Amino acid sequence: MIHSGANIVNMNIRRQSTLRAAAVTASVALHNGQHTKLVMRPAPVGNGLQFIRTDVTDRDNVVPVRPDLVTGVRNCTTLSNAAGVNVSTIEHLLAALSAAGIDNLDIELDGAELPALDGSSEPFLQLIEQVGVYRQPAPRRYVKVLESIEVRSGDMWARIDPCERLELDVTIDFAEEAIGHQRLEIVPDVRSFRERMASARTFARLHEVAALQAAGLSKGGSYDNAIVVDDDKVLNPTGLRFDDEFVRHKALDLLGDLYLGGPILGRVTTFKSGHGLNHDLLMKLYGTPTAWKFTTMPMTDLEIEEEPFLTSVSA
Asked: What is the spatial order of strands in the sheet that 78-80 belongs to?
């Protein structure tokens, strides 16, 4: 629910943000099949986003959200700290945090993988909106793209160009008739994310499922948290939420993967990209010092003192 100041929604957010209160959820994890509890706790200005593995007590259990800590990109994005503590399938939560503009958060987990919930970002976004977003009295730092950067792998590619806001242009092309060729263009602010992306679920092709499970993945996958496709058929009894749900989810994954480096001002265009290429693009961008700079949005004293605009609870 959006309250006063709703006209700000489509502008770049000027202030750092956290949650107004703790938010809790739990479910089976998609890949390891274990039941996992997640608690998002408000954090102070400058804290950043970090995962805290509450089940790990014998070594450093804090895993900061940073692109250089990515250690796995097979079917999901995995982070690891120097002590070898992992957190995986982070992209659906990060997409929701990106859309809502959350910068500072301690995210507690009692397992190595985030709960899958329904396989989309919608349950995470609903949690955020239920407890409310608090805009903090400090400027938000953006990564402003200055030069175009591109990465390729075979016929797959991803590119980021200078832009005054974040824009996504995502194209997928699958042999399966049920998926096929789909494209989505979107400016992923909280409103468009809620309406067009948040509820799009992760998906797998039937012939991949056995291979994933043999590799120790998708142990918790089901029709409750993933779309399964067999050539021209969607096997889920409830069908699709959108005709182009597949490309919407790929855009959701991209948004989450990009947020590993914080909020970006740039236009990102991808063709047949996945977590690996998304990460390659981010690392090439940050590895090219002339291609980006940090920037903030000017703030007046009034803007520093005003009430948060995104909340569903009273102050």
From this structure: 70-72, 78-80, 86-88
Identified catalytic residue from 31, 92, 249, 275:
275
**130 Cβ partners below 8 Å, 6+ apart?**
23, 312, 313
* 235, part of any domain: yes
Terminus-to-terminus CA distance in the chain, angstroms?
14
Helices 91-100 and 122-131: crossing angle, nearest 10°?
A: 40
**Residue 24 pLDDT > 90:** yes
Q: In the block, which residue shows the tokens 């679920």?
A: 201
pLDDT, greater one: 231 or 61: 61
Residues 129 and 43 sit within 8 Å (Cβ to Cβ): no
| DSSP H or E stretch at residue 190 | helix 190-192
Number of domains into which the chain is organized: 1
CATH number at residue 177: 3.30.1700.10
pLDDT per residue as tens digits for the range 263-275: 999 999 999 999 9
In this structure, are residues 142 and 294 in contact, taking their beta carbons and an 8 Å threshold? yes
207 is catalytic: no
Residue 15: closest CA among 247, 235, 310, 228: 310
* Cα–Cα dist 79/121, whole Å: 19
State the pLDDT at residue 298: 85
Residue 250 lies in a domain: yes
pLDDT at 64 over 80: yes
